[in-house]
Amino acid sequence: MLAMVVGLLAAGPAGALTREDVRIASADGTALAATLTLPDARPPAGGWPAVIFMHGLGGTRATGLDAAQAMGIGERYAVLAYDARGHGDSGGLIGVDGPREVADVRAVFAWLRDRPDVANGRIGGWGVSYGGGAAWNSLVAGVPWAALEISLSWTDLATALAPQGLAKTGVIAGFVGALDPKRVDPEVLAMRDAALRGDIAAVRPFAAARSSITRLRGVRTPVFLMQGRRDFAFGLDQAKRAFAALAGPKLLWLGLHGHAPSSGLSVDTPAMLAEGARWFDRFLRGDTARPLPRPIAISPERWRGAPKRFGALPQVTVRRTTLQLRPGRAIAQSGRLRATLPATTRPTEVFGAPVVRVRATATGGWSRIVAVLSARTPTGREIVVGGGGTATTPGTRTYRIALSDQATFVPKGSRLTVTVASSSLAQSAANLLYLDLPFAPGARLRVGSGTVAVPMLRTPISG
User: In whole angstroms, what is the distance from residue 276 CA to residue 73 CA?
Assistant: First the structure.
């Protein structure tokens, strides 16, 4: 499937363009490698509208150039894609979209704006994942984008990677572990280590400096948000909160692409990118002949060529169920408690963050509790609906664990299971959301009563 979609993107329109590789100096002197393409034609009066493309973590500017080609905008826009600092041919160290990366965006934007063949005031930005963080953070820092498109990203890094004060250790280790450590700022490595040992207090200031959500309210820049239905790194909440805060024109596409467990591209990606081309045409070129569509687009899991459109996020109903978790049983770190619910009597589309509540007693240094909601379909396929966790304190208390904010279709006749343990690995060895980091040998968790509340669409759109 992924190879097919890559082929679709590579086969996108490619007209006559001029191409130039350049180096742009950031405020601290760091050289940023960039590629500029221009339509091979005389610029219109006032210059070409332009789009700056920002790639994901570990990527290069080639991603942006491929996206521009797939969108088919090169023949009518100046396109600039650059390697983020610490990536590709750029200098500097990776700082995870902090102040230096924001300064880089500002420098790239100014370099492009100052060209006589580019229209000042008609420069947009497109960012995916890490590049989306750069787009959001530069927007609230005052970079005057005329329009933005942001895919699979975060607006609150703390709630994305350490919700409820417990780090998604597998996600963090995976992101940082895929990078060349010589190209990573030591502060990032220190924050990774703090997250892995549970020192979230040390991580919060770092995350706050790389988050935009508190400054988005009232922002009037047109923004097209593209978030994955099933993305365990950056859940739907990261886009939904931003969408609610923005005061200008906005669209939200909840698609089939995403970080794990989804693939980076999917069958709905070409349609989503075509929507993105129309978004830029409207706000950078003034093409208002076509009215804006309804602001919420949700791709059904079985793609049929178009998303379902809504005027607002669709309504949900919440199913609350008591969990039979063998109350009173104490488990060690290698143990787990499981409760399986009755089989679903109709197709179900989970939409939002399920919530598990358990009354538990932690002793002997037990420091975290993790819950995973999964579904076993009638054909035997297992679907991880979501996972979450929180830090524990000594003694007995009731823990509220909000799981991943996702959109997941569960077929009729499936059996939902809640697994409670010290890590997500207890549900499946392939579930690396929360790693099984060491406890003291005598650590124990005793669980009493429990419940699960599952939000689901009143009318499923998939199936």
Answer: 10
Total number of domains constituting the chain: 3
Separation CA 159–CA 156 (nearest Å): 6
Q: Which domain holds residue 191?
A: 165-209
Inform me whether the pLDDT recorded for 14 exceeds 80. Answer: no
Confidence of residue 42 (pLDDT cuts 50, 70, 90): very high
254 and 114 both lie in a single domain: yes
Domain co-membership, 142 together with 244? yes
Q: How far is CA 24 from CA 21, 91, 116, 342, in A?
A: 10, 11, 17, 60
331, 346: one domain: yes
Tokens (6 digits) for 454: 């599952």
Query: Which position has the token pair 């393409």?
Result: 37
CA 319 from centroid of its chain's CA atoms: 26
Q: Is the domain of 244 the same as that of 145?
A: yes
Contact (CB, 8 A) for 176 and 189: yes
The reported pLDDT for the residue numbered 15 is: 59
Q: Taking the CA atoms of the chain, what radius of gyration do you get in angstroms? A: 23
**In angstroms, how far apart are the furthest CA atoms of the chain?**
77
Residue type, 276: G
In a shared domain, residues 205 and 215: no
Residues of the chain above pLDDT 70, percent: 96
In whole angstroms, give the CA distance from residue 112 to residue 125.
12
Neighbours of 179 (CB within 10 A): 16
CA distance 326 to 448: 8
Please name which of 141, 233, 135 lies closest in space to residue 178, comparing C-alpha atoms. 233
What's the rounded Cα separation, in Å, for the pair 208 and 212? 8
Note whether 385 and 350 are within 8 A (CB): yes
**How big is the chain, counted in residues?**
463
pLDDT digits (tens, 9 = 90+) for 295-343: 999 999 999 999 999 999 999 999 999 998 876 789 999 999 999 999 9
